[in-house]
TrEMBL record:
One of its GO terms (cellular component) is cytoplasm. The lineage of its organism: Bacteria, Bacillati, Bacillota, Erysipelotrichia, Erysipelotrichales. This is Ribosomal RNA large subunit methyltransferase H. PANTHER family: METHYLTRANSFERASE, RIBOSOMAL RNA LARGE SUBUNIT METHYLTRANSFERASE H. GO terms for molecular function: rRNA (pseudouridine-N3-)-methyltransferase activity. It catalyses: pseudouridine(1915) in 23S rRNA + S-adenosyl-L-methionine = N(3)-methylpseudouridine(1915) in 23S rRNA + S-adenosyl-L-homocysteine + H(+).
Length: 159
């Protein structure tokens, strides 16, 4: 399976980079992992709703340019479905079995995802109703994808 993570913004914190490197290495035995970063747009402190929508749209266009036609797109969205780790593992397994072997996870910037990106998504997933920094969320997503592979292979780690 090919897993692509398309995210807004660069990872600056060393501890997050180290975690991402660790889970990327662990995942290399299960899938081909590609990470794509698009630049984040600066948001003024007192940005209007209109300005925030324009920023999300600009980031969204950059995201959409990175999505290939053959990708099954999972948008990380607060309005998406919530799953247990076991349900998430089953979903990834079913995607592979159904021929959707190119999966792209989309992580938006601090303002979230544009409506156009959400429309392109095949599925919307929510890990929590809490808000996480998008840099840290990439690490959380990688850990859950790794956990899913371990679950699907009946390998220890999950508990």
């Amino acid at each position: 399976m090919n897993i692509t993570i398309i995210s807004v913004g660069k990872i600056k914190e060393k501890y997050i980079k180290l975690g991402i490197e660790e889970f990327s290495k662990r995942l290399s035995r299960y899938c081909k992992l590609t990470m794509v970063e698009v630049p984040d747009e600066k948001t003024p402190d007192n940005a209007s709703e209109r300005e925030m929508e324009l920023i999300k749209d600009k980031e969204g266009k950059q995201i959409l340019n990175k999505i290939k036609d053959n990708m099954y797109v999972i948008a990380m969205d607060l309005q998406g479905d919530m799953k247990t780790s076991e349900q998430f593992a089953k979903q990834l397994s079913q995607l592979a079995l159904s021929g959707d072997s190119n999966v792209a996870f989309i992580i938006g910037g601090s303002l979230g995802l544009s409506d156009e990106v959400k429309k392109r998504a095949n599925y919307k997933l929510c890990f929590s109703k809490m808000t996480f920094p998008h840099q840290l969320f990439k690490l959380i997503l990688l850990e859950q994808v790794y956990r899913a592979y371990r679950i699907n292979n009946n390998e220890p780690y999950h508990k």
